[in-house]
């Protein structure tokens, strides 16, 4: 437990540093009075349809998770909705994206399904998200005009088209690594090989006694081998082409709605004149930025990504900063509120972060 707290504190410290630098670099040339002056000119009535579209996207996320959960347990809508929204709320309140671990832990407590099985569905969900974002990113680079001579200074970094392409390729490589891991766990032969390797690990402890090696085998290796089996069950849905196709379709709809929500809010922001496709490009860039360590709620990196993306398409710095800051509040605010309501309904405390005992209980 203390180890987990130390990791959270370390993650928060790194996040504070990264977010602080990002906030400084983003707003250092924008007078605070000009920023507040711009925020007063925004037509906030556009928040209502933007928030409605955002929440519709989360409904589709729940439907997609139900599909991923189907081999583990047929799950009613609300039984999937509450853990998902609580998980996203925790990502906004706690460092290190604790919500990704909290969601399967909450589901385990409520539905009595092995933690590792549910965690596998969350991992598969993230793979669908990354592939969809990469598809959007490829479409953006192919259809949206980005001046090849554009070179924006962000602190000591230079952000340009080449930087975006490099980020995209790095993300693509990571996605293929995750996909290879999923395929290995989903294939019986490779899964059996992985388990044999795990169970053979104690034999490498040649300078230890038989009793210690047996303890390692019982306490560590057997649990890991069991977790591999649970993860494989959680990924069983990927063996159905029809369900995979539906998950891909839902993933595209989720991110189209996310882009639409961002775009709708631009209609109430003077000086932010971008097309829907350009706004989708800004959203993808923003997602690349917030994938880095940051404080809860992605403060700093969200603003840096949004402002950089809008500057690419000719939006002035003051307007870009004002839109991004206000949009950030209205994108995460409703998610946080719904997550808190879900925690009240289910009796799950947002203060308690699921720890090692929750994971071991569900293994």
Description of the structure:
The chain is mainly alpha-helical. It has one domain. The chain is 74% helix and 2% strand. The chain has 14 helices and two strands, in the order ααααααββαααααααα. The chain has helices at residues 2-27, 32-39, 47-69, 77-93, 99-111, 115-143, 161-186, 188-200, 210-234, 241-266, 276-290, 301-312, 317-346, 356-361; strands spanning 152-154, 157-159. A two-stranded antiparallel ribbon has the order 1-2. Helix 6 (115-143) crosses helix 11 (276-290). The longest helix has 30 residues, at 317-346. The radius of gyration is 22 Å and the shape is globular. The mean pLDDT is 82.
Set out the fold topology.
Blueprint (H helix, E strand, L loop, with lengths): L1 H26 L4 H8 L7 H23 L7 H17 L5 H13 L3 H29 L8 E3 L2 E3 L1 H26 L1 H13 L9 H25 L6 H26 L9 H15 L10 H12 L4 H30 L9 H6 L2
Antiparallel strand pairs: 1-2
Unreliable stretches, pLDDT < 50, 5 or more residues?
Answer: none
Number of strands: 2
| Mean residue pLDDT | 82
Order of helices and strands: HHHHHHEEHHHHHHHH
How many domain regions? Answer: 1
Separation, N- and C-terminal Cα atoms: 17 Å
State the strand order across the main sheet. Answer: 1-2
Helix content: over 70%
Major beta-sheet overview: 2 strands, antiparallel
Q: Work out the strand percent.
A: under 5%
Class based on secondary structure composition and strand pairing: mainly alpha
How would you sum up the global shape? globular
Helix count from the secondary structure assignment: 14
Radius of gyration: 22 Å
